Request: fold
Amino acid sequence: MLQLEYLLTWFLARHGLASERGASLVEYVLLVSLIALVCLAAMTYFGSESGNSLDSSKDSIIGAG
Reply:
């Protein structure tokens, strides 16, 4: 059975019928999803701390001006 699968894969690749474009697209979607998940986790974890820091910076800038 393995030889038949190997032969079919070879035939499809040889005649340009097989494409790895779909696999690449799936990999990019997974990568972008992982990056978005990490960004959301970081925003959730640092959200209140960065908000306080930005408010403090804003007040300092307004006070200096």
The chain has two helices and no strands. The first helix runs from residue 2 to 14. The helical segments are 2-14, 21-64. The chain has one domain: 2-64.
